[in-house]
Write a structure and sequence with these properties.
Chain lengths: 194, 660
Amino acid sequence: MSSQIDKESRLSQKPKRLIYILPLGLFAVLMVIFFFGLGLNPRLVPSPLIGETVPAFSLPKLSNPNELIQHTVLKGEISLLNIWATWCASCKHEHPVLMKIAQSNEVQIYGLYYKDVPSQGVAWLRSYGDPYHENAVDEEGKVGIEWGAYGTPETFLIDQKGIIRYKHIGPISWNDWKTTILPMINTLRNNNDV
Amino acid sequence: MIPELGHFTLILALAVALVQAIIPGMGLLLRRTDWMAVAKPACLLQFVLVLTAYGVLTYSFIVHDFSVLYVANTSNSELPLIYRISGVWGAHEGSLLLWLLILSGWTAILGIASKHYPVDMAAGVISVLGFISIGFLLFSLFTSNPFLRYFPAPFDGADLNPLLQDPVMAIHPPMLYMGYVGFAVPFAFAITALIQGRLDTAWARWVRPWALAAWICLTGGITLGSWWAYYELGWGGWWFWDPVENASFMPWLTGTALIHSLAVTEKRHALRNWTVLLAIICFSLSLLGTFLVRSGVITSVHAFASDPTRGVFILAFLGLVVGISLSLFAFRAWQLRTLTPFSLISREMALLSNSVLLLIIMLTVLLGTLYPLMLEALGGGKISVGSPYFSLVFIPLMIPVVILVGIGSVSRWREDTISNLSKQLRTPAILAVVFASVSLLFLPGKVSFTAWFALLLAFWVINSLFTQLKKRLRHSKNLLQDLKRTPRGWYGMILAHMGLSFTVIGIGLSSVYSQEQDVHMLKGDDRTLGEYRFELVDVEKITGPNYKADMGTIRIYKNEKELMTLHPEKRIYNVRKNIMTEASIHSNLLRDLYVSLGEQRDINTGAWSVRLYYKPFILWIWLGGFVMVLGGSLALTDKRYRTSLKQEEIKLDDNNVLAN
């Protein structure tokens, strides 16, 4: 049987001409992406969740896996929910900014620890410092999907009523905080006072 | 005055590079051997000039010349001598100069060895390398000049990133660069072959040692880097799928495909265009790696320096080099195609399938690395994809690669049959199942399918190598003599594949059986991990040459017998105030005991946070890498790479005489 296969299966090494041009075509696409990649900055992407109440969750706490943390903690005060993981290089860049925000006491930061091993997150916070009020462990990433996360880091601004007001994709820079997020927080706070 | 000398020699090097690129290149097109003859002296002179520039920068580091901006930014008066020498490549400008030095170094070696190749081939290759050199010299002089002065000179320097103050970090980058840049040589050969239309088995034999040498350096560099990450970052992890790690891993994947495809081209005259394409892709990925690391398009813990103007420059250069090469491929390779038939079941097919798989793996890694960037280009933000994606796609794709290594190594060239293959592979397969199952019994811890499967794959590769050995000596009458006569390339191949199976064992077993604890400990406290008991004896303050540290003393007992004492440190570097975790590790072939010291949690009670790891067989991951390097190096010393063109001609003449 095998000898039959051999006769029929001599590989014809005459691929179509197009195949020879294919690598060039793929490379051209890559170059276009790079070109735009160099020129663009992180910017706002409309999220369907803006103006909606926070999606519900009930997850173990990072600090104590035996206790649960629920979405209800996000109601009552203005807060940030930051989605992060130790495998995320951009999160490492963002971390010092979160530390500064936490020290400014303007807002409480909650963390959604996304698709990662809890012990590593604990170790990370111990080494680099802990800007979070509390962290929810989303080891399988299911809650992250509910929140519409498609990568890390992403940060949500949530008002006193538990309504999502703003979503920031990518690491928050100190400038983002000063010029965008902090003013929004101040507006929310003033509206509430009135 | 001295730094200006460096700057000046770099400008001279640019002038020489122009000569090296243009005159032999024109000579090749106009068929003028006197123009081609410029290649060798030009590339030697260029090497001397770049070496001088490099020497000048090193000198500025050694004598603490902080009036040089780059030195002021990367060194410090307290920095020990060895790190002042390695600090030269501690940031962008210097590492670019190192890139250039290595490129001109490879070119010079090629120039010296050029008598082994036809004059026009050597001239073409040196010319192409000259063009690459022009690009990087322009890049260095216009966007990243390491010799810029800074007035007034600062009193002291900002210090070298403490992460890089480590002996392995002193050799990892040059090794990695030698691999990266080394792929420029096969690339130059490929371009020359496309221009000349000469793509034969002799061409493949010339390229093989260069591709192999680059692959050896890259393998060594990646192995060292992974080992460094393991003991220096203090997380106990050894691979993070960080964009910069990926940047070195992608050329490794295609480089591995290239050295195998070259073997097919040399032995069977087949897959020639595929080989050429792989050579182009390999070097393109090296350039892409440089672009990704240096442009700042992707944020990474590795990107010490990033600047958008540099990004634009490298992008333009990348587009030019790769665009021209792939256009050349699109038009010339089509004309050079031939038909060398082989069956669906043959060694060619196994090697081709494996190189296609490696290319697919490279593309998935590329996708994962660039996905954040693409998303950004389409209007999203900067995000990370991270390890969940990579482990999901990498492992399932790598399994068939390892299986094919076994099949490929016993199948015949050109044509084989399923019945013959299954007859030959039956024994190795059955033995692999037996060995894997038996070894599982001796392992501590629960029975795990993953561990069993990793062992199965490893034994499958090892057994098939023995089958190949048996096949080779089947008709042997004098075993010792036949073993001696077997070329070193073959032994190197066996050794390198052994290395692969070691790495598979290391990854499989360490990921299944590792145990860790992250605990608070008071002096005198102890914790048990597997069979080991860790006792925190003391934490004291010590002072190093340029840092202060808390040093823990942790005693480890097994069955209540004292085994060893480990000293993990928490260092604070004087200048940059960086906090560094220096883990303390005891390694042997069976397991690593890994201890790292966190922060003092509570000043009143003196509780320290401590991380304890027990990692069985993890050393095998890097052992495998070093065995691959060893195998590659052994193959590199094979006699047939050293026969010069003249000897070959003489041999041909002898044959003719005999024939007459």
